[in-house]
Amino acid sequence: MAVPDRRFALKRGAMSITKAIILSAGQGSRLLPLTRDVPKCMIDFNGRTLISWQVAALVANGVTDIVVVTGFRTERVEDHALQLYRDTGARIRTLFNPFFQVADNLGTCWIAREEMDRDFIILNGDTIISDEIVARLIGGAQDAITVTVDVKAGDYDDDDMKVNRDGSGRLLAIGKRLLPPDTNAESIGMLAFTGEGPAIFRNQIDQMMRTPEGVERWYLRAIDIIAKGNRVGTVSIEGLDWQEVDFPQDVEAAKTLTARWLAEGRYAK
């Protein structure tokens, strides 16, 4: 009996990713006073919240089982998730992280680990992405874990989640402290886990959360560790539209981007 090609099997499985986990527990303190009483994911961009733009891009690609991990002002996000369900028909659920004030997003992932029960996409709650990016990730998720990356023409700044990958697209290292000679891409905070990927990620999260420094870690530190012993792939979305909303200037950039999408008639309700 012929042994099936693992890479092809993973790629074919990735084509049917229907689940996503959105990490939206934080307040977004760097956007104060805008986020004094409004979670970052609830910021309005041209009549649509940040999380609504994310859901639209996911649903456009058949991702209709969406778990939103909440924290700050959770009741607002919970009410909004119900409205998004009514608007889209997608199964949108919330999962409250009671430790959002004392743990970084590795802890948020740990709270959601039971939801990592099949192929899924994970997405930071502060990143607006286009439907083309979701399609590019799903279509290119040939490895158990695939990181979506962009490539800059200039230098990467201190706040970028920098990536080092080889000529085949394999991720070698990821982290904010990578030196310029070791950086050739940046993570946009969106990954796909297929095949054995969810189990590998869950196990790594659990190991790290059992250590004293676990609550202080970002989940991409888990990816960096996994990449040392397993192949972690990357998919480039260079040239496609996305915008992280982390600083006040990002808000204006996101408004400009979403205004263009509205003018194009994209994601019409």
Describe the structure.
The chain has 269 residues and is of the alpha/beta class. The protein has a domain at 6-143 and 190-215: Spore Coat Polysaccharide Biosynthesis Protein SpsA, Chain A. It is 33% helix and 23% strand. It is built from eight helices and 13 strands. The strands form three sheets. Strands 1, 4, 5, 6, 8, 9, 10, 11 and 12 form a nine-stranded mixed sheet that branches. The chain is globular and about 45 Å long.
Summarize the structure.
The chain is α/β, with parallel strands linked by helices and 269 residues long. It has helices at residues 6-14, 50-59, 74-88, 105-111, 131-140, 197-209, 219-227, 248-263; strands at residues 19-24, 44-45, 48-49, 65-70, 91-96, 120-124, 127-129, 145-150, 162-165, 171-175, 185-193, 233-236, 242-244.
Morphology? globular
**End-to-end distance:** 50 Å
Element string (H = helix, E = strand):
HEEEHEHEHEEHEEEEHHEEH
Query: What is the CATH homologous superfamily assignment of the domain at 6-143 and 190-215?
Result: Spore Coat Polysaccharide Biosynthesis Protein SpsA, Chain A
Q: Residue ranges: pLDDT <50 for 5 or more in a row? A: 1-14
Determine Rg (CA atoms, Å).
18 Å
Structural class of the helix and strand makeup? alpha/beta
Q: Would you report the number of β strands?
A: 13
Give the C-level CATH assignment of the domain at 6-143 and 190-215.
Alpha Beta
The name CATH uses for the topology of the domain at 6-143 and 190-215 is Spore Coat Polysaccharide Biosynthesis Protein SpsA, Chain A
Indicate the percent of residues in helices: 25-40%
Largest sheet: 9 strands, mixed
**Strand share of the residues?**
15-25%
Q: What CATH architecture of the domain at 6-143 and 190-215 would you give?
A: Alpha-Beta Complex
Oligomer: single chain
User: On the 0-100 scale, what is the average pLDDT?
Assistant: 88
